[in-house]
Amino acid sequence: MPGNMAQDLTEKELLKMELDQLKKEVKNERQMVSKTGKELKEYIESMAAEDPLLKGVPEDKNPFKEKGGCIIS
Known about the structure:
The protein has helices at residues 5-8, 11-26, 33-47, 52-55. By secondary structure, the protein is an all-alpha fold. The model has no long low-confidence stretch (mean pLDDT 87). G proteins are composed of 3 units; alpha, beta and gamma. One of its GO terms (biological process) is G protein-coupled receptor signaling pathway. Residues 5-73 form the G protein gamma domain. Belongs to the G protein gamma family.
C-alpha cells in the first residue's frame, strides 16, 4: 500500500517545497481588506438578482425535479 507523499519525502525535500511555495506567495499582490471587502460586497449585491440560491429556480427549469411519482401496490 503506497504511503503518504509527505512521509516519502526527506525533511530537506519538504523544506524545499515549503520554500518554493513561500517564494510564489510573496509575489502575490496584497490588497487591503477594507478595499476588497467593499468590492466583494458590491459584486454580491449586483449579482443577487441572478442568484438561484436567493431567488429560487422555476419548477419548469429545475433539473432536479422528480420526473414522476412512486406507486406502491
